[in-house]
Amino acid sequence: MAKRAAEVDRTEQYPWDNVELLKDAKLIGMTIPTQYGGQGKGWLDAVLAIEALSAACAVTGRIAVETNMGAISAVMAYGSEEQKKMCADMVLAGDKPAICITEPEAGSDANGMTTRADKKGNRYVINGRKHWITGGGVSRLHLIFAKVYDEKNNYEGIGGFLAIRDETKGLKITKREPTMGLRGIPEAVVDFEDMDVPPSALVIPPRGLKKGFADLMTAYNSQRVGAATVALGIAEGAYQLALDWSEKRHQFGRPINEFQGLQWKLADMSIKLSAARALVYNAARSGEGGFPDMLMAAQAKVFTSESAIQIVNEALQFFGARGYSRELPLERMARDVRMFTIGGGTAEVLRNVVAGALLKKKLPQTRDGWGQA
Ligand SMILES: Cc1cc2nc3c(=O)[nH]c(=O)nc-3n(C[C@H](O)[C@H](O)[C@H](O)COP(=O)(O)OP(=O)(O)OC[C@H]3O[C@@H](n4cnc5c(N)ncnc54)[C@H](O)[C@@H]3O)c2cc1C
For 286-298, how does the pLDDT look when each residue is reduced to its tens digit (9 = 90+)? Predict the structure, then answer.
């Protein structure tokens, strides 16, 4: 996968061949319970696999995240038997589910979404637009969040619906975003035009015993740990390259790692990596038997994503001009890693989550203190 990573970036093609390798190695659907064909592994098992994959190819690491965490774990936790079977089969066959929350006018404030699902007889009719949907155009399974209204137009809360691209009429992929990094996996605009689904498509009902958006956020903690893991893996890959190069590269008659200025950089990079790894592993462990703890997942993602950007940037510096060349992976890693303080909850918004959990009160800068993407 390391050898293919540059080509995946250059061609911007989804690495279907890597998906086959992941399937062969049983790294897809690891966390799906055994009765649905998975391996029933815990979050930490998935994290260890994702970390190693991401050091070689971040795009493949993200595919491993989204076939073990996020949407699939929400379905496994909250879905009906029928929904679980269908989604497990699709994921184990290699489909990376897409999770559709963000809208052009509702990003961090996901509760401000305007996509709506109107109950009409025994159907729901969904209209709206989502953007920055990872896998849009390659994913078949979509988990879509919308505001649900009853037949009298009373608002019931946010619910999560399943739809399948090319099967569910009215689901359209309308644009691919030209992204800075992680180019092998499309980010797309997804439109729903009178998308008509039966009640059996509803995985996370807006209210009742299941609490719609709150349940989504709980499940999403697994995806946040996964995102932190990809950033960690990229940083580890870059650090290792810098460490090796620092011995090989000679200037002023000695290996460059004999300069104290670079030794201290290596020391700082390794300290940040160890701290990030501990946060990520602990967050993963906190979720065994359920979902990772919200506070621990947010802390892990903020620290790891910000540290990883710094580590990759420093690693690139070790290579001098070569680091700036597309012939080496450092510039790609720098572009790829930049995403992780943004997607899946920005570092600022996750600091709000951390502060809200510490202070145990609603914060004025959030809509309800908790429900943020
Ligand atoms: C590569 C990538 C993949 C993605 N994949 C998906 C996906 O699969 N599905 C999906 O639904 N979404 C996805 N997203 C969207 C992502 O979740 C949003 O980009 C993110 O939640 C931020 O929303 P926004 O971009 O609208 O920024 P905005 O919400 O407009 O934020 C702009 C700035 O304001 C800051 N800000 C906003 N509110 C506050 C506040 N209360 N306090 C302090 N600062 C604040 C933000 O931190 C940010 O710096 C993806 C994004 C990227 C980049």
Answer: 999 899 999 999 9
- Integer Cα distance of 165 and 162 in angstroms: 10
Q: Distance from first CA to last CA of the chain, Å, rounded?
A: 30
Pairing outcome for strands 250-251 and 98-100: unpaired
Report the 10 Å Cβ neighbour count for 179: 16
The tally of CA atoms less than 13 A away on the side-chain side of residue 245 is 20
For residue 160, what is the enclosing H or E element? strand 155-164
Task: Select from 67, 349, 362, 372 the residue to mutate for testing ligand 1; criterion: most ligand atoms less than 8 Å from CB.
Answer: 349
User: Tokens in use for 168?
Assistant: 């569910």
Residue 102 CA to ligand 1 center (angstroms) comes to 8
pLDDT on residue 370: 45
Q: Is 185 touching ligand 1 by the criterion CB < 6 Å? A: no
Contacts of 246-251 spanning 24+ positions with Cβ under 8 A: 246/318, 249/318, 249/319
pTM score:
0.96
Report the separation in Å between the CA atom of 128 and the middle of ligand 1, taken as the mean of its atom positions: 18
C-alpha separations of 161 from 88, 148, 186, 195, 248 in Å: 16, 10, 21, 11, 54
Its sign, for the CA torsion 202, 203, 206, 210, is positive
Cα 108 to averaged position of ligand 1 atoms, centre (Å): 5
Give the Å distances, CA to CA, from 138 to 10, 13, 63, 97.
18, 10, 11, 9
User: Angle of helix 2-11 relative to helix 16-24, nearest 10 degrees?
Assistant: 150
Ligand 1 neighbour 372 (Cβ under 6 A): no
Which residues does the chain have with pLDDT short of 70? 208-210, 367-373
